[in-house]
Amino acid sequence: xxxxxxxxxxxxxxxxxxxxxxxxxxxxxxxxxxxxxxxxxxxxxxxxxxxxxxxxxxxxxxxxxxxxxxxxxxxxxxxxxxxxxxxxxxxxxxxxxxxxxxxxxxxxxxxxxxxxxxxxxxxxxxxxxxxxxxxxxxxxxxxxxxxxxxxxxxxxxxxxxxxxxxxxxxxxxxxxxxxxxxxxxxxxxxxxxxxxxxxxxxxxxxxxxxxxxxxxxxxxxxxxxxxxxxxxxxxxxxxxxxxxxxxxxxxxxxxxxxxxxxxxxxxxxxxxxxxxxxxxxxxxxxxxxxxxxxxxxxxxxxxxxxxxxxxxxxxxxxxxxxxx
Length: 324
Prior knowledge:
The chain is built from 9 helices and 16 strands. By secondary structure, it is α/β, with parallel strands linked by helices. It has 2 domains: about 1-120 and about 270-324, Alpha-Beta Complex (Quinone Oxidoreductase, Chain A, domain 1); about 140-260, Rossmann fold (3-Layer(aba) Sandwich).
């Protein structure tokens, strides 16, 4: 048998149940993994609440994790029993065991523990495609990274600095300033206390920033647009504070012919080669210490509802993990 966190109807954290299910046999192209650590993201809470209804009910929670392969399905050539792996985008990761498609897995480098792998892989790959592909940062570029003390923001700030960019990190409270600074932000703005666009102009000698990476959404998108230079890019990558309302596209012209995009990781790992390029970069940087992931809180499987509440409170600094 195995235990897994599921919701049978959409709702708050109280809707989560821990169900006992038969331990599955992996089908072709998939592996059965004993989960050692599972990451929890804000997106998991949005799936649980029904804001995004991408999977049918009952919904098995958790999309990322790390563990040890216990069984392999037919036609699996890349992995074997005993391999240490991590994965993303595989529902059911908040469980003692998970069946995972091989195409969504990567092997862990020697010396990389399960916590750092599970804590860094999904959000690290998100940060990777944002800085590498959505707007390829380089020396001389200036970016705003919202939620710079959070999971993606903490990693994105580090990757942006690796690429030579100047980082303006935003946080919601004074308590998060130190974490954003530690991630490499050159400047930290508490966006709830100040006018972000004015700070962005001041810090760029009136020019505005090249790109804003915005995972907050409703609370910040107007200030994000106003912070851009002419022909700058606003990359929306989340809606932690709520969905933005319909937008008059002419406002992009009046802002200076700016570009607005809403992006998701799945469109930047469409091939196995692209997936492994991003995954292996992140795992390698985590293993050698070039990239640091901060684990803020860990929970047992029985406490997954409390983990979801911690995510939704938006007062954490870093990553929330489940240890089944």
